Automatic annotation (TrEMBL):
<feature type="domain" description="Glycoprotein hormone subunit beta">
    <location>
        <begin position="22"/>
        <end position="124"/>
    </location>
</feature>
<dbReference type="GO" id="GO:0007186">
    <property type="term" value="P:G protein-coupled receptor signaling pathway"/>
</dbReference>
<protein>
    <submittedName>
        <fullName>Luteinizing hormone beta-subunit</fullName>
    </submittedName>
</protein>
<dbReference type="Pfam" id="PF00007">
    <property type="entry name" value="Cys_knot"/>
</dbReference>
<feature type="signal peptide">
    <location>
        <begin position="1"/>
        <end position="19"/>
    </location>
</feature>
<keyword id="KW-0372">Hormone</keyword>
<keyword id="KW-0325">Glycoprotein</keyword>
<dbReference type="InterPro" id="IPR006208">
    <property type="entry name" value="Glyco_hormone_CN"/>
</dbReference>
<dbReference type="InterPro" id="IPR029034">
    <property type="entry name" value="Cystine-knot_cytokine"/>
</dbReference>
<dbReference type="GO" id="GO:0005737">
    <property type="term" value="C:cytoplasm"/>
</dbReference>
<dbReference type="GO" id="GO:0005179">
    <property type="term" value="F:hormone activity"/>
</dbReference>
<keyword id="KW-0732">Signal</keyword>
<dbReference type="InterPro" id="IPR001545">
    <property type="entry name" value="Gonadotropin_bsu"/>
</dbReference>
<comment type="similarity">
    <text>Belongs to the glycoprotein hormones subunit beta family.</text>
</comment>
<dbReference type="GO" id="GO:0005615">
    <property type="term" value="C:extracellular space"/>
</dbReference>
<keyword id="KW-1015">Disulfide bond</keyword>
<keyword id="KW-0964">Secreted</keyword>
Length: 131
């Protein structure tokens, strides 16, 4: 095998291995609950996961802006589930976003958890049920 072809194949395999952590769709188990309903329901949906290339400024000053992009939803749809055993008068339905495609962009706080640390997608304060 010619050396240039071997180097090209090595470069392609390394970039494929590094690309596996880039922003992409993945399945995740999340939980849903309401204060007045006795059960927390756990289900699987698609989310965006992975990292985005960022640059850290070497020289920072008060007038510079440095915006970090995160792996977030590019396209979404909304699905609805019904929580079981909710008492009369309590709306048992919860609507949540489902990722259809992902993108490296600014965090969209209206439907994303943009915190550094959170309680996690599977946290429940009520008894757990499954869908």
């Amino acid at each position: 095998m010619p050396p240039t072809l071997a180097l090209l194949l090595l470069a392609l395999s390394l970039s494929a291995a590094q690309g596996s952590g880039l922003c992409h769709l993945t399945n995740a188990t999340i939980s849903a609950e309401k204060d007045d309903c006795p059960l927390c329901v756990t289900f699987t949906t698609s989310i965006c996961s992975g990292y985005c290339h960022t640059k850290e400024l070497v020289y920072k000053h008060a007038l510079s802006t440095n915006s970090q992009k995160v792996c977030t939803y590019k396209e979404i749809r909304y699905d609805t589930i019904k929580l079981p055993n909710c008492p009369p008068g309590v709306d048992p339905f919860i609507t949540y976003p489902v990722a259809l495609s992902c993108d490296c962009n600014m965090c969209k706080m209206d439907y994303s958890d943009c915190t550094v640390q959170s309680i996690g997608p599977e946290f429940c304060s009520a008894s757990r049920g499954f869908l």
